[in-house]
Design brief:
One of its GO terms (cellular component) is outer membrane-bounded periplasmic space. This protein has about 350 residues and is of the alpha/beta class. It is about 40% helix and about 15% strand. The longest helix has 18 residues.
Length: about 350
């Protein structure tokens, strides 16, 4: 381990941070290839490929299997790992307890750094303390903006979900919508709950919340359909993930509803839906960037002592609205699976 890595608590972060974005020069190199060794503690990324000593980083997320959003995060992490001469160990589990076990596995393997999502922070609190005790630096991404500092993480990369929800609610005020239905597909996930709360805070119309089982798309479809048939005043639906939005399109059709659909997050199929107009707009938090910056930040910390955000402020990757006015500029990247 680099001697600067212990102790690593954000509480000793220097006031001056070096922006991680300064090294966003992607290289198409294999993450398993090596390079000549450089002096420990010296950042050396000549020709777009680090020649610093090989390090191992574990990324542990709460992602469900086969979700394209999380595939995009992983692609970003793999791109940074390839550039930084990093061995990346990626694992995921939706169940908070099992996710904590995966973090413990990373600690037991004595990895050089951990990137983790804190969708249910209380369930990971103890294992975060164990990582700190072991002298392993940890950064957060995507979920856990309200908890990363108190759990001693170095940095956080993502969007403020409350702010993004409020931005969406404000945008709805300009669409003429009067009654919104916010669909939560994983009850208890802090990110999702904050999004709906944000929408409700700024949307001038009525906002209802509907809980569905995001692991069962036929159930999602039937639950939304039933709600739309029950309450025909709903004229706007807000979903919190691209697959749920695409299923909601089918539900609107089945219910004979005229409700429009706005959503959080993108994938290739959702980009097509925005182009066609079946999805009104999406809030993009740039998941590729979250994965990339998380790995790169740990490399920078080990090799150059940098703290992204100064160890005190999150590094925001969103929100940004994607609609018909700008979809053409994003579609090519989405087709590659990087937006």
């Amino acid at each position: 381990m680099n001697p600067i890595a212990a102790p690593f608590s954000r509480r000793v972060a220097p006031a001056l941070a070096v922006a991680t974005a300064a090294v966003l020069a992607l290289a198409g190199c294999s993450s398993s290839s090596g390079g000549k060794k450089s002096e420990e503690g010296t950042a050396d990324a000549s020709a777009g490929k680090a020649s610093t000593p090989r390090m191992t980083i574990a990324m542990v997320t709460h992602a469900p299997s086969g979700d394209t959003f999380w595939d995009t995060i992983r692609k970003g992490a793999e791109a940074a790992a390839a550039k930084d001469n990093v061995k990346l160990i990626y694992s995921n589990d939706e169940t908070a307890g099992d996710q904590a076990n995966l973090v413990q596995n990373a600690i037991d393997q004595k990895v050089d750094g951990i990137a983790v999502t804190l969708a249910k922070p209380d369930a990971l609190k103890d294992v975060m303390a164990k990582a700190e005790k072991a002298g392993i630096p940890v950064v957060g991404l995507n979920a856990g903006m309200t908890a990363w500092k108190e759990q001693g993480l170095l940095s956080f990369f993502g969007q403020d979900e409350s702010v993004s929800g409020q931005a969406l609610g404000t945008k709805l005020n300009s669409t003429g919508a009067k009654h919104a239905l916010c669909v939560v597909h994983a009850q208890g996930d802090v990110n999702l709950e904050e999004r709906c709360a944000g929408v409700k805070k700024t949307f001038s119309g009525k906002t209802d919340v509907l809980y569905v089982n995001g692991a069962d798309m036929p159930s999602v479809k039937s639950t939304i359909t039933a709600k739309l048939k029950q309450d025909t005043t709903i004229d706007e639906m807000v979903t919190l993930a691209a697959p749920i939005a695409l299923t909601a399109v089918q539900a609107v059709s089945d219910a004979g509803s005229k409700a429009k659909i706005a959503t959080f997050d993108l994938n290739k199929e959702l980009v097509s839906a925005v182009e066609k107009g079946t999805i009104e707009f999406a809030v993009d938090q740039q998941p590729y960037l979250q994965g990339y910056l998380s790995v790169d930040a740990l490399w920078l910390y080990k090799n150059n002592g940098n703290y992204s955000g100064g160890g005190e402020e999150p590094v925001l990757t969103g929100p940004a609205f994607v609609d018909k006015s700008n979809i053409d500029s994003i579609a090519a990247f989405a087709a590659k699976g990087t937006r």
